[in-house]
Each structure stands twice: as C-alpha cells, then as structure tokens.
C-alpha cells in the first residue's frame, strides 16, 4: 500500500541508508529502508511518504553533476542543477546513479527535506568531509552536530576511565573550514561552531554523568579556542569592520 500517511498515523519514521560504489560500472547505489515505530492504537504502520533531496560530493568537495538515475528498473532524468529530489514510498527503495567517476560522499536529506530520523553508513571521515565541504548548510551543520555528539560521548567514556582527553584533529579542521569560509552567513557560522548542550548529551547516555559531560564540553571549547585562535580573532575583526557600531557596545 502506497499513501501519504503523515497525517493519518503517528510516529516518526526511522530511515536507514546504505551506499555502495561500483568502479567498473561507474555507478553509485543508495538503498533506503524505513521503519515506523508502533504507537498506542496503531501497532501496525504503513510506509510513509519521505521526500528526499540529495547531492553527491566528489573528492574535492564539489557537487557532482547528476543527470540520470535508475529506479525500479527505469532510467529517468534528474535536474541538472541543485539537489536531486526523489521520494521513498515503500519499505525499501533503491536508487542507482550512473556515470559517477569516483566514489562520492552522499549528502542526504538536504534542507531537512523530511522530518525523519536518519541512520546512514556515513563514517566519521565522511561526516568530517561534509562538515568541511557540503554546499547545503543544513547538512553541513548536521554533520558537525553528529560528529560532536559522537566525540563528546567517546570523551566522556574516556574521562570516566581516567584516560587523557584528546580532541580529534579532523573535527578541529572541520570547524576551521567553517570559520575560514567567507561565503557563509554569520548566523550560520555561529550555529555551526556551537557544541550540543550538556542536556542533549546526557539524554544519549544510559547513565547520565553531569560532571563528566560538563568537564568534556568545557575541555573541547577551550581546545577549539586555543587551536583556532587566529581564525576566531580574524572573524571578530571582520565583524567589527563590517559593523563599526559594535565597537561601542
């Protein structure tokens, strides 16, 4: 059964995405599956309508030009500019992009195209790459937040085991790329370099440890301030040049 059930059944879909690249065929495959959790009065759910906006990044961080894709055994054209728009209607769907010269990094649900929970096979390296290069600001922010949550949880565990705290240099490089990108809106930069709150991290823990989370978050902030001092000062100076009135506040 295929329908837009967003307004007739409760629950937020969990959308899982896996990817594979065939170098001989020069094709890149994205496999989507969705699960809608049972809720009171609705133990069985139909697949929901999930609009998907996506792009594929090459090894330099640029969006690959996408012209066609295979879906349900049919080759169909896609827009030659901007993100590719498609829909996931069934429990499982597969999309195959052709004439892809190298394994790309997928940028999924661009612009928050669907209010779902996303579980993809993106690695930490992939997320760092998206944080540094994605042309979609929402996904660039989301990549940073996902990395920060994973980093903070790992460091909390290290702190609880009396291990020394270390900040992943790739995360620092990702934040540096945000600060160094003159094309980005100042409000976006502020959001993108902000860490998840302590409450958000404790919600992800089986047993919350407020003291450990606080120590880790303060450690990361201090390390970022130290390692990115030049970039932060440059950004503040630029802000004063653009808005001299701020110097009198």
List keywords for this structure.
single chain, 249 residues, 3-stranded antiparallel sheet
Structure characterization notes:
The protein has 249 residues and is α+β, with helices and mostly antiparallel strands. The chain is 37% helix and 21% strand. The chain is built from seven helices and nine strands; from the N terminus they run βββββββββααααααα. The strands form two sheets. It has a six-stranded mixed β-sheet with strand order 5-4-7-2-1-9, with no helix packed on it. Strands 6-3-8 form a three-stranded antiparallel β-sheet. β1 and β2 (27-35) form a beta hairpin. α1 (124-133) crosses α2 (137-160). The termini are far apart.
Helices and strands, in order, run as: EEEEEEEEEHHHHHHH
Gyration radius (Cα, Å) is 21 Å
**What general outline do the C-alpha atoms trace?**
globular
Structural class: alpha+beta
Largest sheet: 6 strands, mixed
Strand order of the largest sheet: 5-4-7-2-1-9
Question: What is the count of DSSP helices, taking H or I runs of 4+ residues?
Answer: 7
Average pLDDT, rounded to a whole number, is 86
Helical content, roughly? 25-40%
Runs in which pLDDT lies below 50 for 5 or more consecutive residues are none
Alpha-carbon distance between the two ends: 61 Å
Query: What does the oligomeric state look like here?
Result: single chain
Number of strands: 9
Fraction in beta strands: 15-25%
Summarize the structure in short.
Helix content is 37%, strand content 21%. It is α+β, with helices and mostly antiparallel strands and 249 residues long.
């Amino acid at each position: 059964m295929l329908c837009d059930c967003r307004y007739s059944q409760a629950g937020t879909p969990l959308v899982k995405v896996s990817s594979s690249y065939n170098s001989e065929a020069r094709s890149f495959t994205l496999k989507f599956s969705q699960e809608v959790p049972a809720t009171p009065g609705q133990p069985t759910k139909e697949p929901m309508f999930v609009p998907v906006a996506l792009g594929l990044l090459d090894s330099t961080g640029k969006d690959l030009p996408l012209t066609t894709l295979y879906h349900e055994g049919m080759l169909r054209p896609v827009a030659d500019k901007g993100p590719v728009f498609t829909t996931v209607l069934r429990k499982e769907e597969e999309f195959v992009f052709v004439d892809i010269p190298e394994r790309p990094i997928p940028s999924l649900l661009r612009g928050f195209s669907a209010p779902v929970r996303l579980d993809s096979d993106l690695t930490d390296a992939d997320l760092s790459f998206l944080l540094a290069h994605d042309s979609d600001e929402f996904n660039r922010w989301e990549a940073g937040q996902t990395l920060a949550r994973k980093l903070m949880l790992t460091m909390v565990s290290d702190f609880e085991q009396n291990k020394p705290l270390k900040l992943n240099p790739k995360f620092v490089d990702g934040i540096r790329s945000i600060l160094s990108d003159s094309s980005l809106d100042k409000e976006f930069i502020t959001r993108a370099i902000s860490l998840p709150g302590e409450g958000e991290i404790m919600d992800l823990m089986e047993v919350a440890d407020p003291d450990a989370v606080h120590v880790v978050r303060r450690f990361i902030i201090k390390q970022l301030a130290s390692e990115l001092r030049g970039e932060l000062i440059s950004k503040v100076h630029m802000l004063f040049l653009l808005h001299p009135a701020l110097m009198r506040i």
